[in-house]
Specification:
heterodimer, A: alpha/beta, 7-stranded beta/alpha barrel, immunoglobulin/albumin-binding domain-like, 2 domains, 11 strands, B: about 260 residues, alpha+beta, Immunoglobulin-like, 3-stranded antiparallel beta sheet, 6 helices, about 20% helix, about 25% strand
Chain lengths: ~525, ~260
């Protein structure tokens, strides 16, 4: 038996950015880039470790919105077109860079073969639905997939509408069942946001465990005996895994975090911005708006240097750095376990390390190589081993009962990111439609088939408007117009549908159009709001 | 406005009364010494307001009833219903917003000119009002307010009302009770332990390991006074939407048919 357990938890999430009414839509690229740079590289890692018989265990949340997009035929077709264009561009790049620079030429050839491999995995191995890969590795016992609130709604701000909280959880559970053929054991609460009493709702929906940030256990009314290094159970009967702050800092910190190493790929130098417009126009947004293509030739070099003075990226060098960083990380975890074992001599301490999945590959390009090396190193370690949440739960004999403190994993650890001067205006509207939805669900006990369609679509619009991504974007000031429009559109569609219901004049053409535009959670039942 | 007009106007006026300044200080949670003069109190208020601005809680420039930049919402300004939402932001601040039905709007519109409309906040531990705080709000121009809560882990409720010419207070509407957030380590040593086989719980009284020197808060990814925007820009220190932030930094949104 090893001295310490290591639980890696990856949170894979994207908001629902499906726009069937457009042949190309800029925000759909969020999904395409995440598939190419994170999700398929993770699957590649699973396959490679399995082929070499290397034991690896990790938990991953695949949010309902992401699941719905990954299994959507329209988006699958668009991804294929996107990848074919990208491969075409990478072929042009091979020709172009041969005359430019030897290092760029080498990287261009890498991209070309890498994109072809990604497309092969996507199309040929998993028939365009990569959820199958996560299901396969879950069934093989390597990974444990957990669910998330339906549209990544920020649940603490729905607390005065418990039925809205429950609806988010129910949708999360049902979507999981549809894709993974069984009920989820655990959940990743959107933004790691826990508030007192949620445990009872989760338990009643069949959820056995969830994750929190560290201070949920530090500031609980009775502090956790082992801090964040051992699970606790809530009064409602759910197990809690709390984030280890040390592991987070080693990866996330802008000062000491690994992704900032000068030899890693520079995110902000992409040929979508660098190449001549005439040359690149067919590979960026159709409006002519420049955007990332995923082909980047420069390394971070020095964080203080302006973008135009960066050095050329060397992928072999970067991969070697990632492998060394993985070794360093495992050494640090071993040291941490030794330290913890000296303090807690009656338990095997658990280090829980949750991260946004998209950090690995999308933002930190070499992240998947880091993770693969991490599991290779852990497999060799005599001190730590990787574990699944359910394995830890099954090994427990006694556990401390406590109510975690309200907390999130956002900046400052509370709710400021999702409620501040830039986004506070949305809550009066979200509150209103949640309340209206509850009223309608309670009122319509025996709706006609047509009324049921309207009510189900109203439920979809409420859920889509509640995504925590919209207030987050408003805070960061990135695609604010998009976030405002999304909230606006979903709530206005809700009103339109509500009016149809109230006036008893259901416009079937309009209803069908809205169902097509916001086609998510096909099997939804509006009664989740009653 | 995020920051009530009243506060800004008082600070801008040449001669705010010392009582007005003391009221503002109280509502912002500033502790004053008896000997403090007007200019000292103004200095303290400004310091607190700057801190709130750094925390992203208030703005001196934007109007929070409208989305920022070019983004425009077409959603209604009112739903003609009496409602008051109270939301916790962090251990020190809460946010209240409200809406009125036609009847209430009529009542407010017909109040005598010099009627003071106010936002009250009660500390309501164990259903008893322990403490109440209030600030004047202009209900014609303000429909939300950020306020300081002096105690963590404590139930609060907010209320909108007015004071008539006889100095009697009349409630218009109130929010539900909300518990303020906590960033304090507790010292309850009565631990409950559950035996998962027997399903029996046991109480253990002991000094908590984590309150001794085994773990410090150093290295926590949180800094309660750090500026949120800066934290996010400097690298997503603590997760949350990393993908969107990094991906869309240089992008605009949209599609072409």
């Amino acid at each position: 038996m090893k001295k310490g357990n290591f639980l890696l938890m990856l949170h894979a999430h994207l908001p629902y950015v499906r726009h069937p009414d457009y042949p190309d839509f800029l925000e759909e690229r969020w999904l395409f880039e995440a598939i190419t740079e994170t999700y398929i590289p993770l699957i590649k890692m699973f396959r490679s470790l399995e082929n070499e018989n290397i034991k690896f265990k990790l938990a991953i949340s695949i949010t309902p919105t992401l699941s719905e997009m990954l299994s959507d035929e329209d988006l699958q077709n668009k991804y294929i077109s996107h990848m074919n264009k990208l491969i075409e561009l990478s072929e042009k790049e091979i020709i172009k860079t041969e005359k430019e620079n030897v290092q760029k030429f080498k990287t261009a050839k890498f991209y070309n073969s890498h994109f072809k491999e990604i497309l092969h995995i996507y199309s040929d191995l998993y028939s365009r639905n990569i959820l199958k890969a996560f299901k396969e590795f879950q069934e093989k016992g390597y990974i444990e997939v957990v669910t998330c609130s339906g549209t990544h709604g920020f649940l603490p701000f729905m607390k005065n509408h418990p039925e809205a909280v429950r609806a988010q959880i129910k949708v999360g559970v049902e979507t999981y069942k549809k894709n993974f053929g069984k009920s989820p054991n655990g959940i990743w609460l959107a933004e790691c946001a826990y508030s007192r009493g949620f445990d009872r709702i989760l338990k009643s929906e069949g959820i056995n465990y969830f994750f929190t940030d560290s201070h949920a256990l530090w500031y609980s009314e009775t502090p956790a005996h082992y801090g964040v290094y051992y699970p606790v159970i809530t009064p409602g009967g759910d197990f809690v895994f709390a984030r280890d702050p040390e592991s987070s800092e080693q990866v996330w910190s802008s000062v000491i975090g690994y992704p900032g190493d000068s030899r890693y790929r520079e995110f902000y130098r992409d040929i979508g911005f660098d190449r001549d417009f005439e040359y690149i126009k067919d590979y960026i947004d159709k409006s002519g708006t420049r955007c990332n293509t995923g082909i980047k030739y420069y390394k971070i070099t020095d964080k203080t240097l302006p973008a135009e003075r960066k050095d050329f990226y060397d992928i072999n060098e970067a991969y070697e750095v990632a492998r060394n960083h993985a070794k360093d990380f495992v050494l640090k975890k071993e040291f941490q376990v030794k330290k913890l074992t000296n303090i807690f001599d009656d338990i095997i301490p658990l280090i829980t390390a949750p991260f946004d999945a998209e950090l690995y590959g999308h933002w930190w390009y070499e992240g998947p190589v880091f993770l693969e090396s991490l599991f290779r190193e852990i497999a060799k370690s005599e001190i730590i081993e990787s574990v699944l949440p359910s394995e830890i739960i099954n090994s427990l004999e006694t556990v401390q009962v406590l109510e975690p403190a309200d907390s999130t994993w956002g900046a400052n650890g509370f709710n400021e990111v999702w409620l501040n001067e830039k986004n506070d205006w949305i809550y009066r509207h979200l509150n209103h439609i949640a309340s209206q939805m509850h009223k309608k669900a309670t009122e319509y006990k025996n709706p006609s088939e047509l009324e049921k369609r309207v009510l189900n679509q109203m439920a979809r619009e409420v859920l889509l408007s509640q995504a925590s991504d919209w207030p987050f974007i408003m805070t960061t000031g990135t695609t604010v117009d998009y976030a405002v429009n999304r909230i606006d559109n979903h709530i206005n569609r809700f009103f339109k549908l509500e009016k149809m219901l109230d006036s008893n004049k259901i416009d079937t053409e309009e209803l069908s159009h809205i169902e097509w535009i916001d086609k998510i959670f096909n099997d939804i039942d509006f009664n989740i709001y009653s | 406005m995020i920051l009530d007009d009243t506060i800004l106007n008082i600070l801008k006026t040449e001669e705010p009364s010392i009582q007005e300044l003391r009221n503002i200080s109280k509502n912002l949670g500033i502790k004053l010494r008896r000997s403090m003069k007007k200019r000292d109190i103004i200095k303290e208020i400004k310091k607190e307001l700057l801190k709130m601005e750094e925390d992203g809680l208030i703005s001196f420039e934007t109007d929070n009833t409208l989305p920022p930049s070019n983004a425009k919402t077409t959603l209604p300004e009112t739903y003609d219903e009496n409602s008051m939402i109270l939301l916790p932001i962090n251990p020190n601040y809460m946010y209240a917003s409200w809406d009125f039905d036609e009847k209430t709007k009529d009542i407010i519109e017909n109040l005598p000119k010099d009627t003071k409309t106010i936002l009250r906040v009660y500390n309501t531990e164990k259903n008893e009002i322990i403490r109440n705080m209030e600030t004047p709000v202009d209900l014609n121009s303000t429909n939300s307010f950020y306020f300081n809560v002096p105690d963590q882990n404590t139930f609060y409720t907010s209320e909108i009302g007015y004071v008539d010419k006889n100095n009697d207070y009349h409630k218009i509407l109130n929010s539900e009770k909300i518990k303020s957030l906590s960033s304090e380590k507790n010292k309850n040593y009565k631990e409950q332990w559950l035996n998962l086989k027997t399903k029996k719980t046991e109480e253990k009284i002991q000094k908590n390991f984590m309150n001794s020197n085994t773990e410090s808060l150093t290295g926590s990814p949180k800094g309660i006074n750090d500026n949120i925007q800066q934290k996010i820009e400097n690298n997503i220190n603590s997760g949350g939407g990393a993908f969107i932030w990094t991906l869309v930094k240089n992008s605009k949104s949209g599609g072409i048919k």
